[in-house]
Amino acid sequence: MNEKCWLIGSPDGPWPSHLERAASARGLRWSRSAPSSSALSNLPANRGIGIAVAADQLAAIASADKLRIAERVAEGAVLYVKGGFKPGESYSMAPFANSCFTVADTNRSVGWRVTDHRSLPRVLAQETAIADFESLRAEGTPESVEPILLARPPGGRERPAIFTIGCGAGSVIYDLTTEETRSSTSLLGRLEDPATFAGTIGSVVAGFAFGPTAPPEPSFNLVIDDRPANLDYLSTARLRALMRHLNDRFLGIHVDFGWTPDQLRPSRRYIEVLKEYQCGFVWHGLLHHVDHRTIADPDSALGLGRHLVQTICQRYQVRFQPVMIFPFERDTPATVALLKRTGFLAMAETPPLAPDGNGATGGATVELAADRADDNFMILKRYPVAALTRSRMLALATLRLPIIAAAHPRDVSLRRLPLPRGDGDGSFSHFDQVLGFAAEKQLRPASLERIAQEALTTRSLET
After folding, report:
1. What's the burial of 157, exposed, middle or buried (CB within 10 Å: 0-12/13-18/19+)?
2. In what order do the strands lie in the sheet with 90-92?
3. Which of 5, 74, 268, 350 has the most CB atoms at less than 10 Å from its CB?
4. What are phi and psi of 94, to 5 degrees?
5. Three-class secondary structure of residue 335 per DSSP
6. Predicted local distance difference test score (pLDDT) of residue 371
7. In the predicted structure, residue 364 carries a pLDDT above the cut 80
8. What does the pLDDT read at residue 385?
9. Which pLDDT score is estimated for 221?
10. Are residues 6 and 49 in contact, defined by beta-carbon separation less than 8 angstroms?
11. Residues 57, 8: contact at Cβ < 8 Å?
């Protein structure tokens, strides 16, 4: 049995699917187990496996089977207990610990605070929010309990809503938060909303706790399309000023530029400025800056594009990453398949966004910032700066997903010819909100190529 995560019984609510999606984001497989002696006897004795069960179903399991689960936890497994708690009742932690706790008899909360517990993503440490939501809370917990999330009732003091206790080499996570029975919001969307964050974060913490290795720390990237370009001889000074500004906000920031192969002769000074900083280049089209749905022969276009890119690389002593950003983000299944056949590592695209720029309602493609389209190919999700609110960046980083901010030359004052009085000519401060968050949370700057490589490597090691 190679499954890493086991769900015992059939608990109510959407949390099992949230837990499964969080674990699946790490490439971990799932299996469902009946709460019977014959099924529980097959739980593997592997360090890092995950077991999830509702409190009422755990209480109904025979003592011998609970001891079998406790043995697995003591060997290094993580047990996640959520759902099935009742207000006003006391719960024993045996056989995992010689302790008990009581569930408070009210469940309305008006705010939450995340601790700095080691099981949490570092970006969440001491985050707080004022929000009206439903959550049970624990009372009378022993000193050995380590809080993960504290909920505050109206007029009361904070109490643990999610907490953990050690058991040998493993641990048990108790999650008393509640959530609506049905929810169509994506995992990313639920983490963005303070009112649904508390009911979701426990599943994410547990999902990422499963597995033998720690997930990678989140990274971020800035990418500017349509540069370098021919006939762009007057913006070199502005380019240098932009790069200085970005590095003043985050020293060592990495910026990728989308270079179209037919742009054979940009200013050499422009390229030399970029070489002074942590910059890279990615493909921006197979050959020309056109809607790639109109290309009749993509193979021929790529063949000529490769020849031009080789010329560019020799002329300017640069390297193109095997990453594609299609012009206008328009492609076809055939052009994407061509990338996979010819050694490209990834492509980057913007997920569907709602009219207000909020991508959380955009469906499954929004939920993952890095979709594994193939064993050797990634589809990276990038966002316009306006869509990268602090809550979204926090949600992405919580899921250990890359934050990729995209812009065009007009956004950052890199037009070939500045407009009169600078009207509509963008600003060097365009990325400041993203850089401020990255500095606050100590995110890692990375190229698109490195982001894709890390995502593929992490998945391959954990599957």
Report:
1. exposed
2. 90-92, 100-103, 138-139
3. 5
4. -65, 145
5. helix
6. 60
7. no
8. 97
9. 98
10. yes
11. yes
Please state, in angstroms and rounded to a whole number, the distance separating the CA atoms of residues 243 and 71: 56
| 116-174 pLDDT, tens digit each | 999 999 999 999 999 999 899 999 999 999 999 999 999 889 999 999 999 999 999 99
Residue type, 299: D
Picking from 212, 210, 201, the residue whose alpha carbon sits closest to that of residue 7 is: 210
- Output the six-digit token pair for 96: 């995992």
Mean model confidence pLDDT for the chain: 88
Before 95, cis peptide (omega within 30)? yes
Distance between CA 435 and CA 375 in Å, rounded?
32
d(CA 177, CA 5): 21
Q: How big is the chain by its Cα radius of gyration, in Å?
A: 25
Task: Report the 10 Å Cβ neighbour count for 230.
Answer: 13
Q: How far apart are the first and last CA of the chain?
A: 13
Cα torsion for 131, 404, 222, 288, to the nearest 10°? Answer: -140
For residues 207 and 19, is the Cβ–Cβ distance under 8 A? yes
| Whole-Å CA distances, 325 to 164, 184, 283, 330, 385 | 43, 30, 6, 9, 17
Report, as an integer, the average pLDDT of 282-302: 98
188: left (phi over 0), alpha (psi -120 to 50) or beta: alpha
Yes or no: say if 299 and 340 are a contact pair by the CB < 8 Å rule. Answer: no
- Kindly report the backbone phi and psi dihedral angles of residue 315, in degrees, each rounded to the nearest multiple of 5, phi listed first: -70, -40
Q: Which two tokens stand for residue 422?
A: 């600078």
Residue 275: alpha-carbon gap to chain centroid = 30
d(CA 342, CA 300): 12
Comparing 151 with 47, the larger pLDDT belongs to: 151
CA distance 274 to 40: 59
Least confident window among 41-50, 249-258, 271-280, 351-360: 351-360
Of 389-403, 412-426, 429-443, least confident by mean pLDDT is 412-426
The token pair at 193 is: 């909303």
More confident residue, 49 or 445: 445
Q: Coil, helix or strand for 129?
A: strand
Query: Would you mind telling me the total number of residues written for the chain in this entry?
Result: 463
Q: What is the pLDDT of residue 154?
A: 93
